[in-house]
Design brief:
Elements: E1 8-11, E2 19-22, H1 24-28, H2 30-41, E3 58-64, H3 67-79, E4 82-86, E5 96-102, E6 107-113, E7 122-130, H4 134-145, E8 149-158, H5 164-170, E9 175-180
Parallel strand pairs: 3-4, 3-7, 7-8, 8-9
Antiparallel strand pairs: 1-2, 5-6
Helix pairs in contact: 2-3
This protein binds adenosine monophosphate (AMP).
Residues 18-21, 67, 127-136, 164 line the site of adenosine monophosphate.
């Protein structure tokens, strides 16, 4: 079965006109979960940081709260790497840096622990879905403020018609998604 067949579409959620791409049906199925986690992890096995040769390969996986945590941690575990959460405001207990970003209605913020990523460290950014790209763009700018080097922005799902993929490419990011849905 292809990965997109594990994703359920719920029309008009959370409001009329939105086609909600529900990943809970994918998570529920061991094959769907494996396809999603391995689909991203397999692309990066070769560039994983090797502690012995200090070649400076991929060193960490970064996930965006909350659905990015589900896939990001499993991918980090598969690659034998650590995981860094980008969290909603006030959730991280240590010193943080943060970035505000606009949503369709209102605004939001994501935060990162100071010192979680070493300057120059290579990271893989993971989230479940990219739509307008506002969230991922804030994550990219925050990671760059921390002087991380982003190897790739990886998503299980992309909605390319909403412009987020282009938005990240305009920031010179490499973007990859496992499946795409046309429209919104
Ligand atoms: P955006 O900042 O517009 O790219 O939206 C990113 C976040 O909103 C993702 O992490 C998704 O979890 C969620 N999201 C946006 N649109 C949808 C959608 N149509 N279906 C499911 N989740 C969505």
């Amino acid at each position: 079965m292809s990965l997109d067949s594990f994703i359920r579409t719920i029309p008009d959620h959370p409001k009329p006109g939105i086609q909600f791409r529900d990943i809970t049906t994918l998570l529920l199925d061991p094959e769907g979960l494996r396809l999603a986690v391995d689909g991203i992890a397999d692309r990066h096995r070769h560039d994983r940081h090797d502690r012995h040769d200090r070649s400076g390969g991929l060193g960490l996986v970064v996930g965006i709260e909350a659905r990015g945590f589900i896939f990001g941690t499993a991918i980090a575990y598969q690659l034998g790497l650590g995981f860094v959460p980008l969290r909603k405001p006030g959730k991280l207990p240590g010193e943080t840096i943060g970035r505000d970003f606009d949503l369709e209605y209102g605004s939001d913020r994501i935060e990162l622990h100071v010192g979680a990523i070493a300057p120059g460290q290579k990271v893989l950014l993971v989230d479940d879905l990219i739509a307008t790209g506002g969230t991922a763009e804030a994550a990219v700018l925050l990671l760059r403020e921390a002087q991380a080097e982003i190897v790739e922005c990886a998503f299980v799902i992309a909605l390319p018609d909403l412009g987020g993929v282009k938005r990240l490419e305009q920031l010179d990011c490499k973007v990859h998604s496992l499946c795409e849905f046309a429209g919104d």
